[in-house]
Amino acid sequence: MILETKFSVSYLMHYNDVSLKKWIDKMKILAIDSTTEVCSAALMNGDEVAHRKQKAPRQHAKLILPMIEELLIEVGYKLSDLDALALTIGPGSFTGLRIAAGVVQGLAYGADLPVAIISTLAVLAQGAYEQFNSMNLLPALDARMQQVYWGAYRINKHGLAEPMIDDSVSDPDKVCVPKDDNWIGVGSGWQVYSDGLKKRIGQQLQIYPDCYPEAKYILPLAQDKFERNDLVTAAEVLPIYLRDMSE
Known about the structure:
Blueprint (H helix, E strand, L loop, with lengths): L2 E3 L12 H7 L3 E6 L4 E8 L2 E8 L4 H16 L8 E5 L5 H18 L3 E4 L1 H13 L3 E7 L5 E3 L2 E3 L5 E3 L4 E3 L13 E3 L2 H4 L1 H8 L4 E3 L6 H13 L14 H5 L1
Parallel strand pairs: 2-5, 5-6, 7-12, 12-13
Antiparallel strand pairs: 1-4, 2-3, 3-4, 7-8, 7-9, 8-11, 9-10
């Protein structure tokens, strides 16, 4: 069994209502991610997080439901005991996006649960913050076809990744980010297109190319959305294909 302390609890402290904070601390959210080579699931149970992950390209459809079942058994819950579901909706692998959306739609319909939808790049940035304490982050994923999915995120006072610009897809030499900040590069895009990205940005960057979005880093972002009632229904769980939007 894998249990970890809940992430980014600091952002809860802006609540003055003690009873509300106690209720929030008991929230139960199940999150999944299948947007890259790594498939993962995580379950927040109050102040603890149980999670699973496996790097297994093209195996996500076989892995994700058993992961979810294992997590529910671990914490002793039924799906209907949860407060919400969460997932990354893109950008990422077209097949992986459809798998995650289909799974969450089915679970949300069956248990009548609301859903928090989160950007894959936001989760990548959140994970880099949690692991390396980096505050200004440039997540980039290999989009194939000599392009990258990219974004620019800054960690706010509550310990959550916030976008500085809209997530985009482009050639590496067309990436454009806010200037005059100490940016950190994270994600597979920095491994595949490192030279082109560094040349375009014009900074000496520290990069972490082996970072992947993981479901456990969805949870603080999903919890924030739950608190703000920024949720969707099962029918509204749709992948975001940035390449279609850019055409």
